Amino acid sequence: MNSRYILNYVAQMFEVSPTDIQQQTRGRQSVAKARDVYFYLLEATGKSHNEIAKIGRRERSSVTCAIKRTKEAMKKEEFLRKRVERLLDTVMNITINEPTY
After folding, report:
1. DSSP per-residue string spanning 62-98
2. Measured between alpha carbons, how far is 9 from 3 in angstroms, rounded to an integer?
3. What confidence tens digit (pLDDT) does each residue in 47-58 have?
């Protein structure tokens, strides 16, 4: 799945704009959490941390930390875990069913 679609799904789910997620600044906590989840979903689709860093305009180490933060938060926050699982299901279903040309 195209990273732009994933970005839009995450932005919609977290009620932030895609532009906010992509900005270099940390921004509000909700934006930072959305960005972390975005990186987590990109990894789930098979992207490497280096690829995600390019897409997200971050350092590779920042991507690694964001994904780790998301995994830890999902263990502690059931609401976040359910949100991320729902996003992941959507992303993976679209990725699997995406036509190849």
Report:
1. HHHHHHHHHHHHHHH-HHHHHHHHHHHHHHHHHHHH-
2. 10
3. 999 999 999 999
Alpha carbons 48 and 82: distance in angstroms, whole number = 24
Instruction: List Cα–Cα distances, 39 to 16, 57, 88, 99, 100, in angstroms.
Output: 15, 11, 12, 24, 24
Beta strands in 13-75 (DSSP E): none
Residue in 38, 1, 2, 42 with CA at minimum distance from that of residue 17: 38
- Tokens matching residue 30: 């909700």
- Tens of pLDDT, residue by residue over 30-69, are 899 999 999 999 999 999 999 999 999 999 999 999 999 9
Helix (H) or strand (E) holding 9: helix 3-14
Q: How many CB atoms lie within 10 A of CB 74?
A: 18
Q: What values do phi and psi take at 57, rounded to 5?
A: 55, 50
